Amino acid sequence: MLLKQYYLGCLAHASYLIADEKTKTAAVVDPQRDIEQYLADAKAGGYSIKYVFLTHFHADFLAGHIELRNQAGARICLGERAQAEFDHTSLKDGDVIEFGDVKIQTMETPGHTPEGISLLVFDKSQSETIPHAVLTGDTLFIGDVGRPDLLASIGVTANELAEMLYHSLGKLRQLPDSTLVYPAHGAGSLCGKFLSKETVSTIGDQKKFNYALQPMPFEQFRDLVTSEQPEAPGYFVYDAIRNRQERPDLANSMQSSLKALSLDEVLRLRDKGAQLVDVREAADFEGASLAGSINIGLKGKYATWAGSLLSHDAPIVVIGDGDNEQEAVMRLGRIGFDNAVGYLKDGMEALSSRPDLIRTVARITAAALAEQSESTAAPFVLDVRSEKEFGIVHLANGYNIPLTHLRERISEIPTDRPVVVHCEGGYRSAIACSILTQVGRSNVSDMVGGIKAWIATKLPTVPEHTLTCGTKICEPVTI
Predict the structure, then answer these.
(1) Which of 148, 248, 332, 405 sits 20 to 30 Å CA-CA off 176?
(2) What pLDDT is attached to residue 466?
(3) Which pLDDT score is estimated for 265?
(4) Domain-located, residue 45
(5) 466 in a domain, yes or no?
(6) Residue 444 is part of which domain span?
């Protein structure tokens, strides 16, 4: 038996290929929407992908079950409680699918969502009764459990889901300690709050070290798993619904999204309400950008922030550097944003004769901001990190508006004094500066390196803070 994990860092998402050498049959579990890696590995091993499992309807990405059905002929398999528009095999608790030495047994584990299942994977050449591994989806993570409060589970309360989760974890706790635990997400996912950077563990280790697997009454468990959860991006509900629906596959949607558009075409689309997304790095964007564009760099949590700040209804035009437009559109497709209509041909070179359309954002060092803050014309310091991050450490004169709420709270930012924006390391502050310039604010600067640079420069914070554990000063759920 082959059990291979694929890990997609930008979405902190794990998927799996399970294959049998005897029958050359394979199954894929919780695939990402761009499925080329599964097809390539199956071809290399001589496997036929006959099954694709979803442990639940994911909220943070659009899964590749439709793509594997269309391109590999795979049969879609879902938990018994899953309601989907497309044809699928419905699996109840205890149901088994076998091929060669591989046995996959369904374990109903609702809680993160009502339809959630885990998959017990047996290598029959080793044991037909002791599972080699359990693929837990978003029910059990390494160091955490799936949050029961996401609005993706429409019509079910967080309390009801927490009770389901409590009983589901009780079932998983009964598995042999040696059983390998393979979840669907790791650190950085917003499907939980304390996810480990590790991508595999054992039931035994999780019983020792996972806070949510310790024996406790339900009320205590419910309070633990529902408190202090990170804010979920608005697109989560959209994706959870889309994962239930019949839809075009990614290859078809990208055919209509990868069109080279002239500057005039882009301007016409912009004036009709299209969203212009510049995917270059912050320094390049702030050096020169097209008026009306927002910067969401590919070298960061691009998909998560695009899903948080863009609409899945209005057209999207990508502005790149000539080499990354296809990747930008594909990564939008990973979260179900198939509304890209093209990209700016020749990128920023298209504006060489139109300097009137170019906007810039000033960049300022931590030391320079500290000096300006002592003057009579001190700037307004805008901290766009989360409230939790701000509570851990911040600048004495910082004003906190989390990036996800910047547009709705923009009136709180004064117009009669300079504004300096910062985050943890500079990714989110660049997005925030682009939003401010998009609405006409001109006296805006981005603090290079964020609060990390401020602390590294040994400037004062509230409370006093030094880099005692590397350079990470924020919670692992930071996006």
Answers:
(1) 148
(2) 60
(3) 98
(4) yes
(5) no
(6) 362-456
For residue range 208-263, what is the model confidence (pLDDT) as tens digits? 999 999 999 999 999 999 888 888 888 999 999 999 999 999 999 999 899 999 99
Beta bridge partners of 16: 5, 29
- Total count of residues recorded for the chain: 479
Q: Is residue 189 located within the same domain as residue 165? A: yes
Q: Is residue 235 part of a domain?
A: yes
What contacts 112, CB < 8 A, 6 or more positions away? Answer: 56, 137, 138, 139, 145, 146, 147, 148, 150, 161, 165, 191
Domain identity same for 343 and 400: no
Domain end (from 359, 394, 411):
359
304 and 206 in a single domain? The answer is: no
347 and 383 in one domain?
no
Q: Model confidence over 69-82: pLDDT tens digits?
A: 999 999 999 999 99
Whether a cis peptide bond, with omega within 30° of 0, leads into 233 is no
How do 48-53 and 289-290 pair as beta strands? unpaired
Return the structure tokens found at 9.
């860092």
Final residue before a domain boundary, out of 199, 218, 239? 239
Pull the structure tokens for residue 382.
């805008």
pLDDT digits (tens, 9 = 90+) for 179-216: 999 999 998 777 777 788 899 999 999 999 999 999 99
pLDDT value at 292 more than 60: yes
Residue 439, number of CB atoms within 10 A of its CB: 11
